[in-house]
Amino acid sequence: MTKTKTICRCILLATILMTSVTSYAQTLVGGLYYSFDAQKKEATVEQKPFDVNLDLNDNYYKGDIVIPETVKYGNVTYTVTKIRYWSFVHSNIVSLKIPATVREIPDQLFGGCKYLEKVVVDKNNKVFDSRDNCNAVIYTETNELIAGCKNTVIPSSVTRIANFGFYEVNVSSIVIPNTVTSIGENAFMNCIGLGDFVIPSSVNQIQQGAFLSSYGLTSVVIPEGITEIADAAFNFCEDLRTVILPNTLEEIGEGAFGNCYSLSEVVIPASVTSIGDGAFRGSNNLTSITFLSATPPEMGAGIFGGTFFLDEVAPDLTIVIHVPKGSKDAYEKVAELQNHIIIDDMPAPTGISVIDGETAPAIIYSIDGKRVNSPKKGGLYIINGKKSIY
Question: pTM of the full predicted structure?
Fold first, then answer.
């Protein structure tokens, strides 16, 4: 594990432990910890209290967990209506059954539960469900998936992946249906093994940190219709080699593709008008950027080069910047680009298309402007002035 990823995880763990220390009074009844509201006669499932004298794994729940509808403490019977924030995060639970009485469930419910295989919400629950045996918790009224595990199959009725919905889960086989329109904040943060990830064309919103630190994400195609890639959306995706941006994109947020160490080249669509601070900062293998607009977008500070950590100094990159013919002077005036090599050798590509390799034209250029005699199937090229997948 790299230093950067280790530090990120340590920060998250520290947050969890702090939550444990500051949480409500926890009383053990029947294998689970609860806090009680004597007036309402309601119980809330809590985290296990953290004990520094125990092995780390012993500070979390394990095995098969069945939350009861009621719990008796003293001479009073309480109805279990809530699950507290972080209650099962990083637990070694294998299955979880949620009763009909629970009406409040937080995000970050299953984060880091690497052994969790089965999730069932009682069919009589009026607020949440696990429809179609999906192994997830869905907010019934809004069709929002709020918590998934490694065996989750997202139903076609789901319209949104909630904040932290798949936080730190191995979701290598997950498929997002084309009913989903929004991917929430940190929805796939710290996920493992996403590989070549497909975001359906129905998605029109990718929120802040949606894929932050997703290890094993190697390529992603952002669908047409997306106008903004939020701050840190793909930051610390260390294995990300290929990203294709849509022609509807207008804004690239701060740190959106920062610290993507495997990323070597990017094509910025002509529609982009704003690139935030540090958008590609720390992506120190980036050697080629192609801008498709004759007018440079507004650019924040520290977009390229450098490093994430203030106590480390990395040399600024020298990137080859390819721009449309006749626009070199305009790009040379941009402060963030003055230490880079700017070449106005590109036509002004518009759109993106898929080219049949057998009928492709004879003259093909790579996205960094070099003539290509033997294009590879599936590669991104400039063909007849258009971004094309060969």
Answer: 0.82
Spans of the chain, pLDDT less than 50: 1-7, 9-23, 310-313, 358, 360-362, 384-385
Place of tokens 């590109």: 346
Tell me the pLDDT tens digit for each residue of 36-58. Answer: 999 999 999 999 998 888 888 78
Rounded CA-CA distance 236/190 in Å is: 9
Q: Is 111 exposed, middle or buried (0-12, 13-18, 19+ CB in 10 A)?
A: buried
129 closest CA partner among 117, 143, 149, 110: 143
* Distance of alpha carbon 161 from alpha carbon 158, whole angstroms: 8
Per-residue pLDDT tens over the stretch 306-323: 665 544 445 567 899 999
| Coil vs helix vs strand at 362 | coil
CB contact set of 359 (below 8 Å; sequence gap of 6+): none
Residues 6+ positions from 39 with CB-CB distance below 8 Å: none
Nearest to 344 by CA among 290, 266, 274: 290
Strand partners, 92: 62
Minimal CA–CA distance to 34: which of 51, 18, 47? 47
